[in-house]
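tokens incoming
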């Protein structure tokens, strides 16, 4: 279940929409962006004030970098900011397990497939364990999704946490690939194959299948409506995702805790949450990241492999050629759509319809990575 972080309140989607419909939130952020005095907004679980807002329009103070707005044609990055295990893992003997956190986002570059990405792989995890982003010496990445210019009106975000004692050989192979993946996650296009940074490797047959055929303890699938008719656009900033309604396990969670400016769930005194509710805090931001330009082609390659290839171990060089070919196909598809929009735009009179198509064309053009196809 998805909750939005607004000031020191953790807000359900319905309550957030109610405040938008009333005009309170719109007026608040408008005044904030103009540096005018604003009235605080009272939610059922806390308050949103000019001092605790961490959203577009908040002036930078040197302490917290403000989020940039998201929307059609704008960049979008989704990152994991905190993982809290809560009541998991449910171990009968012993109290620690290996933990794998995966994510998937339906995007225009995955051909309606959703390859899973491995974000965290950590051994010796116990209940009520808190993890922020991996340190420089740890394996894994908090990056879930990136687009230089979003062209989809809505996305579906899946997050899972699997606790298990993975076969040692599989665990080590995960670790080797994840440690060399830089900012791009390791994708799982096949239950027994991994793809990252131009490398494809077999997961030792049945051992690999065993690692992923288990049901995850934590599983959530949430829509992120960016500009979908009939829905309220998701705001940039932090969002908290749990595998079910948090009130079931902790009635005080929403009233006594909030997501602070660094993406941590804390009480009013700044003490981190230590109860039974498992959750993942993610951030939605519109800041451009050129270092993530390879994200979409990588995800596309994983999706293509999942649907069309039965692959054996290959050398890095040959697989890089396949990935490059898929990137060119994606760029060609975007280029073709841009040219089609050019023709349509030229035939339309000035007006809202023409302006909307121009914005869509500009967004598609930003997704073209090959210089030759940009013009």
């Amino acid at each position: 279940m998805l909750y939005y972080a607004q000031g020191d309140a953790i807000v359900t989607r319905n309550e957030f929409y109610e405040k938008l419909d009333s005009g309170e939130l719109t007026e608040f952020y408008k005044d904030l962006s103009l540096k005018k005095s604003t009235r605080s907004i009272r939610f059922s679980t806390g308050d949103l004030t000019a001092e605790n807002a961490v959203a577009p329009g908040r002036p930078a103070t040197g302490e917290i970098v403000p989020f940039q707005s998201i929307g059609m044609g704008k960049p979008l990055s989704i990152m994991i900011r905190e993982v809290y295990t809560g009541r998991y893992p449910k171990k009968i003997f012993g109290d620690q397990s290996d933990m794998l956190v995966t994510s998937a986002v339906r995007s225009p570059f995955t051909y309606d497939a959703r390859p899973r990405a491995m974000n965290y792989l950590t051994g010796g995890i116990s209940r009520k364990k808190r993890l922020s982003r991996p340190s420089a010496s740890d394996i894994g990445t908090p990056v879930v999704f990136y687009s230089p210019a979003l062209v989809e009106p809505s996305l579906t975000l899946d997050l899972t946490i699997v606790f298990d004692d993975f076969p040692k050989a599989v665990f080590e192979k995960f670790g080797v690939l994840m440690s060399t993946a830089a900012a791009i996650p390791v994708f799982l296009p096949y239950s027994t194959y991994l793809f990252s940074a131009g490398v494809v490797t077999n997961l030792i047959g049945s051992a690999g299948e065993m690692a992923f055929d288990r049901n995850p303890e934590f599983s959530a699938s949430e829509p992120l409506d960016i500009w979908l008719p009939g829905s309220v656009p998701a705001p940039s900033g932090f969002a908290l995702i749990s595998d079910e309604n948090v009130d079931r396990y902790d009635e005080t969670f929403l009233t006594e805790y909030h997501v602070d400016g660094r993406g941590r769930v804390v009480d009013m005194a700044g003490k981190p949450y230590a109860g039974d509710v498992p959750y993942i805090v993610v951030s939605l931001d519109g800041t451009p990241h050129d270092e993530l330009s390879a994200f979409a082609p990588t995800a596309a390659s994983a999706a293509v492999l999942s649907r069309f290839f039965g692959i054996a171990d290959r050398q890095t060089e040959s697989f890089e050629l396949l990935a490059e070919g898929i990137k060119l196909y994606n760029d060609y598809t975007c280029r073709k759509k841009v040219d089609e929009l050019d023709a349509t735009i030229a035939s339309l009179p000035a007006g809202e319809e023409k302006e909307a198509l121009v914005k869509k064309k500009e967004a598609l053009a930003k997704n073209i990575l090959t210089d030759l196809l940009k013009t």
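note: Residues 2-66+244-277 form one domain.
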